[in-house]
Amino acid sequence: MANNVIQLDRIFAALADPTRRAIVMRLCDGEASVGELADPFDMALPSFMKHIHVLEMSGLVQSEKAGRVRTCRLRPEAMVGAEDWLQHQRAIWEARLDRFEAYVMKLKKEKTERPAPKRPSAPKKGKA
Amino acid sequence: MANNVIQLDRIFAALADPTRRAIVMRLCDGEASVGELADPFDMALPSFMKHIHVLEMSGLVQSEKAGRVRTCRLRPEAMVGAEDWLQHQRAIWEARLDRFEAYVMKLKKEKTERPAPKRPSAPKKGKA
DNA sequence: CCTATAGTTAGCGTCATGGCTAACAATGTA
DNA sequence: TACATTGTTAGCCATGACGCTAACTATAGG
Questions:
Q1: Res. A122: pLDDT tops 60
Q2: Is the CATH number 1.10.10.10 carried by domain A2-75?
C-alpha cells in the first residue's frame, strides 16, 4: 500500500528529469550499455550513473553487469503504475464532468484518439 | 518544443509528491477552497500553499480568489501531456516487442533448437 | 469599529538533487 | 605483464524542495 505510493513517488520523480526521460526513450529501442546510453549526453559518467540509479530505484530500469559492461533494459511494467494513476484520475474527472460540462471532451476530440493500449490491465477508457 | 519538455518536467515533478497527488484526487471531486483542501493535511498553511503553487505552475491546477477565499480547480488537460508521454513510450516498447517476437520466431525457424528467452532483449544492438 | 477568518509574505533549517573531479577497481586485449 | 576500457566510489559544491514559525493583509460579520 504505502509501498505502492512510494513507488509512484519514485516513478514520477524519475520521469520529471529530461535526461532520464531521454534514457527511457532510448531504452524503448532496446537494451544498451551504460556507455552507449551516456554517449549522447554531455555529462560526466558519475553524474550520468546517478540518473541510471534513480531509474533503477524507481523500477523503470533494470541492469546487470557482465564482464566490465553493465547492460540496462526497460521494465515497462513499472510505467503502468503511473499510467494507471493518471487514467484513473481522468476517468473520475470525466465522470464528474459529464454532469455539466463538455469542453474537455472537445479537447479530447482534438487529440483524436491516441492509440488504444493493448495492455491487459488498461481500462481502455471507452470514451463514455 | 523545449517549452513542452519543461511542462512535462513540471507535471511529473508535481505528481511525484503524495500530498500533491492527494490534492489532485480531491479536486477530481470538484473545486475547493485552499482551506478545504488543506484541512485533511497535518501541515502548516504556508507549506501547503507551496504545494498549491507547484500544482499551478505545472498547469494541473488553476485558482482564483474571490473575496478572501481562493478557489482551486483541476485543469485535466495538463494531465493529458503526461499520460500521452507514457502511452507513447509504451506503444514504442510494444511495437519493438512485436518486432522482437517476430525476430525470435525467425530465429526459431532457422535454428529450431534455439530456445526463446522469456524476457525481451535487444535483437541486435546497432553500433555493432 | 472590532474581531475572527482566510490567505500571504518573509525568513529560516534541513535534506535531496544534479552536476563536477579525482582516484580506484575490474576486466579485456596486445 | 602492461595497457586501455568501463564502470564505480568518494567527496565537493550549488541549488531547489519541503517543512516550520512569526508577522502581515484583506475581507466578512457582528
A1: no
A2: yes
